[in-house]
């Protein structure tokens, strides 16, 4: 006999996550990052889904083979706790993120729009936690350029995020404008850039892939059609702001995304603190240390850097270093998370390795995130990321001298 309690728990968990996706889609990403027993729950969901037609003993033998030290009652309790924690927790939304922060300047901070010496196209793709069913998949493309004969920059970004087996998709489309203030003696210029971005944020979900209670047949599982109303895609305004200071060797910047805090509910619920995408505050900083030969000191350099993000109760700190051996770049990053809501201590999330190469106007970078949190890399499968940047030559008629940013390419 199949363990009916366990099967019912799995069905209820599918219903719960379907409800979460409808009421507050971004909550799902927060929950996946913060459940202490998430690696166990993920494994259980995988095994149960494959084992609904096996005998009870076969299922528990699979758990024994994975050295999951638990008994049947503990497993039932974990499923129940998952439902309770999710049902009564405050919704917590979180933006998608990239490891190669600096490969897409307009996406990182609108003030960096047009900070290149000419037109620039930036493209990113990230597959996060590839071993988990319905893992996150993100794509971003940006275009920006300085305006000829001025200190102004313009550009735009399109960012797509798809997650879950229900294919919850979110698209951000923004247009950016920036202005550069340059001062200081020639050869020792200082720069302050201010930027503003505005556009729309849209969310949608493949409703036919969700699971609801009225679809359950006691013997066959999810076979009935649901009577739940299909939600409509929603579109909300989105506004971002940023500021950056940099000189020849160092940079610091602050950006605020989602000033309007777009509503996240797909059910048309009234706006509340629990169903909005909170403002995200991002601080970046670092410096470039040339160590190359006297005739070309910047051909070899080391660039320590950090990025700190805060989104409501969720905090994340990433610290890394780039090693530039022109035209090759190597990098290593470490990331930690901290949640103010329930008082969790800072916990390590991942370490990442990066390699990049530049030839002419093309730059390409690849990074891999190795999970070191409780999720473990064996369960998550890690995260892969690819970045491509095309930097076109500066128009010779441009009279304003754009000081090249010292921050890394990736």
Describe this protein with a few key phrases.
410 residues, 14-stranded antiparallel β-barrel, two-stranded antiparallel ribbon, 17 strands
Write the layout of secondary structure elements.
Layout: H1 4-23, H2 25-34, H3 38-51, H4 56-65, H5 72-88, H6 105-108, E1 120-128, E2 136-146, E3 152-163, E4 168-183, E5 190-204, E6 216-217, E7 221-222, E8 234-246, E9 250-257, E10 280-287, E11 289-290, E12 300-311, E13 314-325, E14 328-339, E15 347-359, E16 362-371, H7 377-380, E17 383-391
Antiparallel strand pairs: 1-2, 1-17, 2-3, 3-4, 4-5, 5-8, 6-7, 8-9, 9-10, 10-12, 11-12, 12-13, 13-14, 14-15, 15-16, 16-17
Helix pairs in contact: 1-2, 1-5, 3-4
Tell me about this structure.
- The chain has helices at 4-23, 25-34, 38-51, 56-65, 72-88, 105-108, 377-380, and strands spanning 120-128, 136-146, 152-163, 168-183, 190-204, 216-217, 221-222, 234-246, 250-257, 280-287, 289-290, 300-311, 314-325, 328-339, 347-359, 362-371, 383-391.
- The protein is α+β, with helices and mostly antiparallel strands and 410 residues long.
- Strands 1-2-3-4-5-8-9-10-12-13-14-15-16-17 form a 14-stranded antiparallel beta barrel. A two-stranded antiparallel ribbon has the order 6-7.
- Strand 15 and strand 16 form a beta hairpin.
- Helix 1 (4-23) packs across helix 2 (25-34), helix 1 (4-23) packs parallel to helix 5 and helix 3 (38-51) runs antiparallel to helix 4.
- It starts with a helix and ends in a 19-residue tail after the last strand.
